[in-house]
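Checked the freezer inventory, then went back to the computational side. Two predictions to log before the end of the day. The first one is the construct we discussed on Monday; recording sequence and tokens without edits.
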Amino acid sequence: MDIPARKQIRLAEMIQQRLRTHHSQRFGEVIRRTCTLLDNVAGLRRMADLLAICIGRGWNAAASQMTERIHQGLRDLPYHASEVERIVEVCKTPVPAMKDIVAELQQADQEFDQLRHVEESDLLAITVGPIELEDIYLGEFEVQLHLPSLSEVRRPHAIYRIVALDPHTPACNDSVTHPHVSDEHLCEGDAGAAIEAALTNGRICDFFQLVSAVLTTYNPHSPYVSLSDWDGRPCYDCGYTMAADDSYWCSSCENDFCSECISCCNRCDESTCRGCLEECTVCGELVCPSCKTTCPDCGRMLCRTCLEESQCPCIEERQENEENQDDSDQAPSTVNTEAGEPITGDSSQEQDHATSQAGVEAA
């Protein structure tokens, strides 16, 4: 037994005192919720007076709007009335006797065999597990009940925590240690009301049993992470949890991707994610970093195949410029020595004919 008998009695006294504080605060909660109900009724009364004014002055449009507001106000009344009724019923429950709290502690100690009290943080804790659900090993968990929070009427989720002693988290979310535990908070589901009642009435053993039952049961309809996705890994792009045989590795960024986010290089057929592929400016094909390069002349991004086949537009442009330069260099031309002007084509022939004619006349 981890908690000696004397210490159990002292713990029972502290728990009873905190439950008394909680019980007295519940009466104040009755007043608060009743005032909220009366405020809503008073609001309906004011709206009814305004409706009478609208009717008396013939403001039919305003009367319709006011009627709708009254209708909405009436919808809230059942909720506020039920809250008053619920807290009144809770107040009828007496504070448990010391002997009953001691019996709960003794039963919890026998049930779980590891009930312990952490004095530094005033926690009452048990160990559950190791837990294995649908062949998925989850490890051991410690349920830690924060005793000072028992006195609070509006109890926070931090009144108890579920701490994984040997975490086996899913690949997609490190904060989830159990399908129903996230950030050490238990999703209670249908057991929430029973857990709250056990804490309010000082049934410590019942509380631990209820929490343990939730931890050792899998509800496939409301998990933080489903067991079917537990051993998978998340897609680096979209976050989808993939099975081990349904993931694809990008050799460029060295991350895992699902079938929807992976692609391949159109040159080497290597699996590559879409973020690592780039379109060749010449052929338009998507290529991986290993298959892309740049033109040494113009700096365009193009694939290695286009570079090897001299498909860059700047190569063709350079060749055309060189051909035009060659044609210009090969064109015939002469110079008129007297005028200093070039003479080409027919003008040269006319000059030769004029020279011959002048010679005949001289003879």
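The second is the one RB wanted added to the comparison set:
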Amino acid sequence: MVLAMFSLAGKVAIVTGGGRGIGRAIALGLAQAGADVVVAARTAVEIEDTAAKIRGEGRKAVAIPTDVRNVEQVANMRDKTLDLFGRVDILVNNAGSTFYAPALKMSANAWEAIIRENLNSVFFCSRLVGEVMVRQKSGNIINISSVVGLGPFPGGAHYAAAKAGIISLTKTLAVEWAPYNVRVNAIAPGFIVTEGSDIVAQERPGRREAQLRRIPLGRLGKPEDIVGVTIFLASNASAYVTGETIVVDGALTTTVIE
């Protein structure tokens, strides 16, 4: 009976940024928990590969190429999901990226690009898919933030501001939509090894080693480390949890007194 609380059988999930890294791991994990999955991202080949793997494991999956920075494309993603499945139960806002840029050298375009990619996209997807969930009077939205949204992140003021914005947006939407039985939560991963984080690490030699020294658990995270928390938040196991941000970082953000 306890394990049944975590089942996503009969649920329909949308995962943005689902072609690689954390998004791909989450899409596969939700499918393994019983959900049918819409995989969305700009790169059609990558999301089709994820969807094909899900279908190979016996679940329904479709890849919908989507630029989540574009409201019209987000609306198209939502409408196609409804045409195919008739409902949306879970939305995972995972798409995002960053690059190293000290504040004094950051251009207006650089700032706006990262805010648009990481924060605007979460609002657009939540707003448009949230309409469906409010009508259904049920739904779960899970926003992938970051530990950098909880504190200073030198060289990434744009990214830190966006991720902090996601945490605040999560709380606000949770309160606004609670009367409709729509829950909104966030996950704040620590240092996770992905294709995207590899690029950032290459821009700053020695970064990975420095990160590792700061993690009490003694290892960097893997995309799979985010899957269990996502399933928990998407399932009835967390039925009384909303407006929260769960940190998954190997105790990185915990103060250690030696």
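For RB: The radius of gyration is 18 Å. Residues 93 and 143 are 5 Å apart (CA to CA). Let me know if you want it refolded.
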